[in-house]
Amino acid sequence: MESLRQRQIASLVRMLHLNSEPNSTDSSYAATESKSNGAGVPIWKVLVFDSFCRDVVSTVLRVNDLRDNGVTVHMLLESQRSSISDVPAVYFVQPTTENIKHIVDDIVRDLYELYYVNFSTSLPRTLLEDFAVQTTASGTSHQIAQVYDQYLNFLCPEENMFSLHFPNTFEAIHNPSMTDTAMGALIDKIVMALFSVLLTLKTIPTICAPRGNAAEMVATRLDAKLREHIMNSRHNLFADSAEDIVAQSRRPVLVLLDRDLDLSSMLTHSWTYQALIHDLYDIRLNQVSIVQGDDSGRTSKRSYDINANDAFWESNAMLPFPEVAINIDDASNAFKREADEITRMGGVKSLDEVGDLSMGASTKQLQRAITTLPELTARKANIDMHMNIATSLLEMIKERQLDVLFQMEEQLGRQTKASILEAINDPEKKNPQDKLRLFALYMLANDGLRPGDIEECEAALKLAGCDLASLEYIRKLRSLNKMNASITSPALGTGTSAGPSGDLLGKFSSISNRLAGFTDSSSLGSIFSNVRNLLPSRKQLPVTCLVESAMGNRTNAGGLGAGLRSAAGGGSSTAARMFEDFVHFDPKQARRGNLAGSNANALRGSLAADGAAQEAIVFVVGGGNYVEYQNLMEFAQRSTPRKHIVYGSTDIVNASSFLAQLSRLNASS
Description:
It is built from 27 helices and 17 strands.
């Protein structure tokens, strides 16, 4: 089954080939155009995009990929551009009045030979008519070769993960100054983007969402949009081929959730490679920027691109960081052995000298050395990238004692006010935000904290240099009962231990202490060699538990009773009980509206009759992160048969950015 990212890449490549299929015999992105002047000669072209569509493209394609598909130059629509009159131009922009004006100006100035205009989503009829009027008035309409709606207004940072790239959505939704008109416009943008995701997947799902918040508004309007398209469109875009029609028989469930459901997952310290990088350095458009220092004390910023074809990243992104460090060490040693063998065969001292092999070497040796050199060079660059990132992470772990904080959060149910205060007052834990996150998680996991205990901890946080604005807003949310169903701690989720039982803190000695003697020549693997089997157990996060229930898996869903605590009543509830109160829609049914009561039960009953649903699309309004994505992927992999889950959110947000939103909300509330 193709992933969402593979489908988006295929759509982008088709667009770059002037909306025709690339050469099916070519395994790479490069393929000849059907209109090329000769076999194997692509049509060279210019790519022009706005800033949003640039982000869409750069998340999944690199410069080499664009060149392989005939793009010689790529430029921003708003930038000053010179005329290249004998080359066609592919435009990929959002359907806005400003962008149409820019395109018309380019045509009037005769910048390019022909114009292949692609909009990221559906172009409203009013703008289409305006576009036609302007080009007709200027006498340039004959230069427009194509106008297409691509429905690609979302980003795909991972195979089955997408982001709408709407920053600060949680803040916007909860801002008291947000007008009904502005809220409606935001909901419509979310609905349009989700429509594009579903269209890319070529599927019309059943829809469910909790009552009373933004997720229900999105569910209602998305149901109406899908229903209108099915009933009124001349051409159903969801079934363009026999293969797509067959896919419709495997309908997924779309689970729409509000970020309020679980704030803790946005604040927790993670221990997996990808989530740790996102927490400490952020991952924007699949690029990681880290600050490195040298012996003289000077610092420099380096950026690394995470390629979709990076095999090491694909196999290690979701692994615990100590295990990744060992794997980096193993990969480095394996590379050195292969490089030594090549240089020994060629009679040279290093790979740099392989190209200068003398004719004294045998033809077979020369052929093998020269053939292997590009692959070894690429591997070395990839290993060096991950080695540099891991080294920087190790230094951050040491400086902020992230291993200790992670251990405490994993055992949050066993923490006491005394242990939390000890961590807050510990001068070795130098980052104030880490201490704030720890206490926020502790407070969210314990509804019954006495006001005096909270005040004592807040006083300690102030002395530690913490800004309590975000914490104050969390308390306001709880007191106003705006947490839709619950405020949950990951430490209270469900799961079975995959490692040793007993007190983790007693068995997992601090990594920070062992980092004190770390040098560049040290083996990353040796530092973590004794902790691989002592890593904590897996737990299902609240989002995962609700998705499990929505997909019809009732066996383990009841275990959530210990995990979801009611903010209002202090009691516990199961995922199945929460799911019973969701609104349910089926856009394919003739009757419009929420399938409440017996109809909702009938919908779930039909799933049960066919067995548990094997596919789900999960979308969180207000922001998501890699912690939830990885937790859902682990659940999908553990399931028998294996499930297929796509996770998305309005934006991918790390803890620092989310706390900043909470602080600004506190100031405006």
